[in-house]
UniProtKB/TrEMBL annotation:
<dbReference type="GO" id="GO:0005262">
    <property type="term" value="F:calcium channel activity"/>
</dbReference>
<keyword id="KW-0732">Signal</keyword>
<protein>
    <submittedName>
        <fullName>Stretch-activated cation channel mid1</fullName>
    </submittedName>
</protein>
<dbReference type="Pfam" id="PF12929">
    <property type="entry name" value="Mid1"/>
</dbReference>
<dbReference type="InterPro" id="IPR024338">
    <property type="entry name" value="MID1/Yam8"/>
</dbReference>
<dbReference type="GO" id="GO:0098703">
    <property type="term" value="P:calcium ion import across plasma membrane"/>
</dbReference>
<feature type="signal peptide">
    <location>
        <begin position="1"/>
        <end position="17"/>
    </location>
</feature>
Amino acid sequence: MLPEALLLLLHSSIVYAQSRQQLLLNNVARIATLNQPFFVIPSVATQATVSVALCAAGSSPRFFVSNSSTSDSPGSSGGPNVFEIPLDEGQGSWTGGFPNGGVLGVENVGQASFEVGLSDNGTLHERMSSPPMLGDTTSNQAIIFSHVFSNFSLDEPSYPNYTLPSANAPAPTPPDTTKLNFTMFLSPTSTLPDIPKTGCALRAQTSAGRIDREVPWLKDDEGWRHQWFLTGLTPSTNYTAYVVQEGTRVSGPIMFSTKSASFSCPLVASLPFCPGIAYPVPLPPPPAAASFYDASTIPDAISAPLISGLANFTASLLTFACGKDYYSPLASCADCQREYRKWLCTISFPRCSEPNPGDPASFTRVPASPGATGLGARPTLGGPQQVFSALLPQPTSATPRNPNFPSLGREWTMLLPCLETCYAVDRACPNFLGFRCPLRRFNAAATYGVGYIDTGDHDGKQGTGVTGASQDRWGNTWCNAG
Ligand SMILES: *[C@@H]1O[C@H](CO)[C@@H](O)[C@H](O)[C@H]1NC(C)=O
Ligand SMILES: *[C@@H]1O[C@H](CO)[C@@H](O)[C@H](O)[C@H]1NC(C)=O
Ligand SMILES: *[C@@H]1O[C@H](CO)[C@@H](O)[C@H](O)[C@H]1NC(C)=O
Ligand SMILES: *[C@@H]1O[C@H](CO)[C@@H](O)[C@H](O)[C@H]1NC(C)=O
Ligand SMILES: *[C@@H]1O[C@H](CO)[C@@H](O)[C@H](O)[C@H]1NC(C)=O
Ligand SMILES: *[C@@H]1O[C@H](CO)[C@@H](O)[C@H](O)[C@H]1NC(C)=O
Ligand SMILES: *[C@@H]1O[C@H](CO)[C@@H](O)[C@H](O)[C@H]1NC(C)=O
């Protein structure tokens, strides 16, 4: 017979042990009310990661993990094998071995609601290194792409059966993304809520705008992205966007601004023959019920010559013994076709834009003459820090750059293609095709944005132009990279 005191003690420690919640491997637990500040971590054969994310503002709990069976109540007082999980903007993780299981302790919890994840394959809560990407905006719409969630590798064709994708091939079948469960959070930058930028906190917010359509899309050979078509936005407003994958992986932020209320070019996107195009073009509004143009509504007068031109180019290219003979140590016929398609799409679909509402003077107002050398990235104009986008006003009387586009009957402003889209074709294609780009130092800047990505001088050093890219994550778009 045991003394009563010991019995009581035993009894209370059994209750105590029972009330500890057990974390499950490869699972996220949501803790809305904390009854008991310790969680049991099961034994895991390989390295495991414990991750935490705060779901609301207003509290600053601390998390301690122990992977030893002798520290059963880890906390700020330390102890053998007790490690604090450092939080960065509301989330953090710790990776180590749990051969005998372990315990997670929470201190200073207050009213906090939070998530705890346990995984044997990397962290479940994550701030992703690559941000989402803006397609473009109108006054009240936007196209936004997630980070690349899946790589795409095209099988390189080989001799003697060297076949290239047909000009009008359907879009490749997207991977199954139901498990990735993408969500988008969008807010005017000026009223961005003061919450931890974690998956559970962002998911609980009401996002601005409405999602008109969302699909996975292979915009370019970087890989698959999730694509959102948003409507119901406010003109001339700076927005901040985050993307949450699987509820716990956060990508972002990016910022972008909507165009002014008078901006009237509609968006075109989701074209299998021009997968990179996702921006406004100088066309009348799309047919009733559609909020943007896609492959089913884009006029044949525009798509047919483009597809035929690409088919003719591909036929000429294939007169070369592709895959048997080599015209370059770096590029193949498949590279040439891909770069040519991108260039052809970029010049065939003129891009409407306007100066950034926050910086309305940031473009060249005087249209360049065909022999002009000056328009382009010129950081010295208007101060050393200021870079002008390659915007060129199109008067009502202007002949459309692509003659298959109807005349708009009003003024608009064109964002010129980046010269690099042309030089990429020049580099990737065999000489016999006779493809030529305008010279950087001579007339290129009348028709292209020059000096943004590569330098504008004779050498055109790659990636060392004034911006190094066609657009940035703060909402600037310098030239049209397709
Ligand atoms: C606990 O984790 C630490 C740090 O990763 C490690 O050095 C130690 O061996 C682990 N303890 C056990 C029992 O695995
Ligand atoms: C582990 O994670 C990687 C990357 O997230 C994923 O590709 C892989 O399929 C995962 N492995 C398992 C066994 O879940
Ligand atoms: C895609 O491939 C690149 C390079 O091979 C790699 O760095 C990247 O992590 C991959 N991305 C995904 C989502 O698998
Ligand atoms: C050539 O390759 C294409 C695509 O890879 C394939 O569909 C076709 O059947 C192949 N033709 C021959 C004769 O092998
Ligand atoms: C996807 O996320 C939403 C919102 O977070 C959630 O309600 C839904 O259950 C999730 N769906 C799946 C299949 O995980
Ligand atoms: C492609 O070639 C055909 C036949 O030579 C020609 O009729 C057509 O106009 C060409 N297409 C373009 C866009 O040049
Ligand atoms: C949006 O706001 C952010 C923060 O104020 C700023 O850095 C960014 O340049 C703005 N973007 C645009 C397109 O105005």
